[in-house]
Amino acid sequence: MLILLDTPNNKTLAFDVCSSQPLEDLAQQAGQKLYGSHILHTNTYITGRRGISASEALLQTQPWLTLCHRTLGGKGGFGSMLRSQGSKTSNKPANFDNCRDLYGRRLKTLNEAKTIVENIEAQEKERENAKERRRKKIADGLVEKPKKKYRFDDVEYTKECEEIVESTRAITRKAMKKMAADVKASASKKKQAEMMVPLFGDGLDDLDGLSSSSSSSLSSSDESDKDTKSDADDKKGKRKRKAAD
What is the DSSP code string of the chain? Predict the structure, then answer.
């Protein structure tokens, strides 16, 4: 049975021991080779590597053991002295990022990974909140808002508007009366022209000129009379409105 042994001087030796009593045979061979005797030094002992016992290391496919020296103890009271010194020191470390967990991972790496996950979750939550705000805004925009009622209380502006409307109506009435008079005059001209019978062939043009001149004079006199009447009516209306105000 081949066993590898790490010595205190940082060397690795290989020993071929019997499988029935491997540890005793290994101790004898190691004592003979290292110290020149069949037994190991009293301040040395054999253990497994990486914190396992020697019996557990022998169960592996390739047993690999370590030869260690025992550390001599000091006088008593060392533990109480450490405890008293520990109570006096109040500056305890607050940063453990360089420490490792049981799986060998640094705490700094784990904390950074947690921070990344939390940031991603916060971003997703913020996106959801933004979508919800947009939906609410669209829903509020689709709702019909009550119409506002505005009241206009400018008395002078209202009075000016009424005067403008009245003057516009008066001008419109005057224009319509004039148009009606023109239509009547043209109709009367046509009737007179149709009723007139030519007595002389050569004097027809003279009769037409006389009739047109007479009709035009009549229409002009009628129009002047109507204009004067409408102006008088407009002045009377304005006087009445001023008296009412």
Answer: -EEEEE-TTS-EEEEE--SSSHHHHHHHHHHHHHTSSSS--TTEEEEEGGG--HHHHHTSSS-EEEEEEPPPP--TTHHHHHHHHHHH--------TT-B-TTS-BHHHHHHHHHHHHHHHHHHHHHHHHHHHHHHHHHHHHSPPPPPP-----HHHHHHHHHHHHHHHHHHHHHHHHHHHHHHHHHHHHHHHHH---S-STTHHHHHHHHHHHHHHHHHHHHHHHHHHHHHHHHHHHHHHHHH-
pTM score, two decimals?
0.29
| Nearest-angstrom CA–CA distance, 113 and 97 | 13
The residue assigned the tokens 């420490």 is 99
**What are the residues facing 2 on neighbouring strands?**
16
226-237 per-position pLDDT tens digit: 555 566 566 556
Whether the CB-CB separation of 49 and 67 falls below 8 Å is answered with: no
Find, among 138, 1, 137, the residue nearest to 58 by Cα: 1
Place of tokens 């360089």: 98
The Cα 228–Cα 154 span in angstroms is 36
Give the distance, in angstroms, between the CA of residue 66 and the centroid of all CA atoms in the same chain: 65
Q: 150 falls in which pLDDT band (50, 70, 90)? A: confident
